[in-house]
Design goal:
About 40% of the residues lie in helices and about 15% in strands. It has eight helices and nine strands. Mean pLDDT is about 75; it is low at about 190-210.
Length: about 300
């Protein structure tokens, strides 16, 4: 009698058997025979340990907090850098007995980091504000240059006043040499001059009177000088250069010792009023007369 040869179990080959097994439950058939690793070769899960923070850590907690962290990160990063320290077995046991919750504070931000973020935010806002102001100024200057606020005809008094206030600086500087005061007083020869030099006495007295003014200067700063400076500034813009100003439109506002209000003859700060014809209010600017140093 021929002996029966037992074949090892193998997956069916014919289509009919395959359909039958699929109908019964192919999933149970395959899963039950799925190859798995040995226990020693199975992939290890993430190892987590409990540590104590030695300093504030963003996203974990304050200094002294007990937080969970992966073993690899603690061994390779935090412990060498002094960010955290290991807990003893007694401390771990005490935490378990007290049922202390061990978790990290994801919303924690240290005071130093918070202040740094605030400073960065303020700097960013300041930069954005300056950028917006520069863009607005550029747009305004471009609009003025293109004449969008005025026509090709004569400027209105309101528009002319606006252009004067924009382009004329708040301070106009003029430099004049200062008259040095004579500490010896008036010249005795002049005081004892004879009849032949009487005609020169008024001139000398006038010169002495002028030199006795505080901070007296050689020459003066007149309305014509100021008007020339204003016209030079307005000439840099096409629209502002069409403004018509004359000496009658400029006046000094007090602070001048001389009877004449058309010239300044000493050092100091003075106010000039620029009144555009037809405008309701004038534009006031400061005139500074400074000492011109001798070379």
């Amino acid at each position: 009698m021929a002996s029966l040869v037992l074949r090892p179990f193998a997956a069916p080959q014919c289509p009919a058997c395959l359909r039958r097994i699929s109908a019964l439950s192919l999933e149970a058939y395959t899963v039950s025979r799925q190859h798995i690793r040995g226990k020693k070769r199975l992939a290890n899960g993430a190892s987590v340990m409990t540590v104590r923070l030695l300093r504030d850590k963003k996203g974990f907690g304050r200094k002294g907090s007990i937080v969970p962290i992966s073993t690899g990160r603690m061994r390779n990063d935090w412990f060498p850098r002094g960010v955290a320290d290991y807990l003893t077995q007694a401390e771990v046991k005490d935490l378990r007995l007290k049922n202390t919750p061990i978790e990290r504070d994801y919303a924690f931000v240290s005071a130093k980091h918070s202040e740094q973020q605030r400073q960065e935010r303020l700097e960013h806002e300041e930069e954005e504000r300056e950028k917006a102001e520069e863009e607005a100024l550029e747009e305004r200057m471009e609009a003025i240059t293109k004449g969008q606020h005025g026509s090709s005809e004569r400027l209105t008094p309101q528009r002319a006043t606006e252009l004067v206030s924009i382009f004329v600086p708040n301070r106009l500087n003029f430099y004049r040499p200062k008259i040095e005061q004579d500490p010896q007083g008036p010249n005795k020869d002049t005081a004892t001059a004879g009849a032949g030099s009487r005609a020169e006495v008024p001139l000398t007295a006038k010169g002495q009177t002028q030199s006795m003014l505080p901070d007296a200067i050689y020459g003066s700063v007149s309305i014509a000088d100021v008007l020339s400076s204003v016209r030079a500034v307005l000439s840099n813009n096409d629209e502002a250069s069409r403004i018509v100003l004359s000496e009658e439109d400029l006046t000094f506002q007090g602070g001048i010792a001389e009877d004449s209000r058309s010239a300044i003859k000493r050092l100091g700060e003075f106010t000039v009023s620029i009144q555009v014809k037809g405008a309701a209010t004038p534009v006031r600017r400061t005139i500074r007369v400074l000492e011109q140093k001798q070379q």
